[in-house]
């Protein structure tokens, strides 16, 4: 049902209205970040085109809807990059298939994933196909990098923009996939899109780094020297990957943000809400001003490390500044 696409309501309403009014375009370009739901909506549009109920939506239960869901409908074709490139032969094969009469109805639909990965020859061949589309053919191109497509391709498609999913939507989807709530919410807040958030959760070090952040924050609150020992023994000695260090700093920044939100009475906005006991304990031992200054210190450290500053000295300086407040 189109109503399932609440996060992309504008795009869903546009396509639903076009189907109801029998004004479907011959070519669409779905543009938006990874994880925004472009592929899911493309499949739903194909189902709505062929659905036997014929009311502009997909019932999800009829023969055609089930065949498309299973990837077995003869008049719905998917094109994906082969070794990171969409080649002219793939477009030629598609045109050959579409030269035959539609097997199931008067329509044919093709969905091209990562359309920006067409090489020059494939792009030129597709342009001819878009200029003179066969009767009943609907093209759906998907891209996360619209600026990598030629203006001539863009001009021949109706562009449908997809908004980036909210951290809440990403976290909910990760939890549905079996990720623990705390990890899902943290990854969703740090990552730029659904795929990146999922990748973070799959890292063996992600949960460990999050636990280490909580421990370091506790050590910092004690104002003792053990925080430096924690940085040395639990982080620097075990983790050499700069990306993991940056991830650790992102998680530390997120933790300080949660402490501040607790002090501001905005507990519903806390990301690490599965760690409310240590959050409450730590937050009551630190001032709002110190937390704000601490977040600034963490951001400065992240910036230094992107400019190849000494890793050990930068982290030691950060810990000392966080302790001093």
Provide an overview of this structure.
There is one protein chain. This protein has 325 residues and is of the alpha/beta class. The chain is built from 15 helices and five strands. It has helices at 9-20, 38-50, 63-70, 88-98, 120-131, 151-154, 167-176, 181-190, 194-202, 204-221, 226-236, 242-263, 276-283, 288-306, 311-324, and strands at residues 27-31, 76-79, 108-112, 137-143, 158-161. Strands 2-3-4-1-5 form a five-stranded parallel beta sheet, with helices on both faces. Strand 2 (76-79), helix 4 (88-98) and strand 3 (108-112) form a beta-alpha-beta unit. Helix 2 (38-50) packs antiparallel against helix 3 (63-70). The protein is elongated, with a radius of gyration of 25 Å. The termini are far apart.
Task: Describe, in short, the structure shown.
The protein has helices at residues 9-20, 38-50, 63-70, 88-98, 120-131, 151-154, 167-176, 181-190, 194-202, 204-221, 226-236, 242-263, 276-283, 288-306, 311-324, and strands spanning 27-31, 76-79, 108-112, 137-143, 158-161.
